[in-house]
Amino acid sequence: MADITIYQKPTCSTCRQAVQLLKESGKPFTAINYYEKPFTKTQLKNLLKKAKLSPMDVLRTKEDIYKELGLAKKTLSDDEWLDMLIAHPDLIQRPIVENGEKAILARPAESVKGLL
Which one of 31, 62, 65, 115 has the lowest number of neighbouring Cβ atoms within 10 Å? Predict the structure, then answer.
């Protein structure tokens, strides 16, 4: 199994760019569409810990669902934010790329090169 894993949404242009960069690197990787195979709470928590990010760091505030749920006015714990991200995957910034004990939010896509 590949050490590198990209958690992505295939229709996202940044995700497609990151996948292309991984292909060009020649290193084996696994691509996971987290809409088809959703994160578990433990998995997302561990992934964010590896990336040294909080749930708020990966929150997409321009999504319609963010506005519909009135999240700008809410004060939630990290644990509650994790639940929100899992319940509404559109709220998660993407792609997130993991390589062993390190992970990054690959925005811009070129930042994936730092993990290779």
Answer: 62
Percentage helix, strand, coil, to 5, in the chain? 45, 15, 35
Phi, psi of 27 (to 5 degrees): -85, 140
What domains does the chain contain, in order, with CATH numbers? 4-115 (3.40.30.10)
pTM of the model: 0.93
**Closest residue by Cα to residue 99 from 37, 40, 18:** 18
Residues labelled catalytic = 12
Q: Strand locations in the chain, DSSP E? A: 4-8, 29-33, 96-99, 102-105
Task: Find, among 1, 2, 5, the residue nearest to 98 by Cα.
Answer: 5
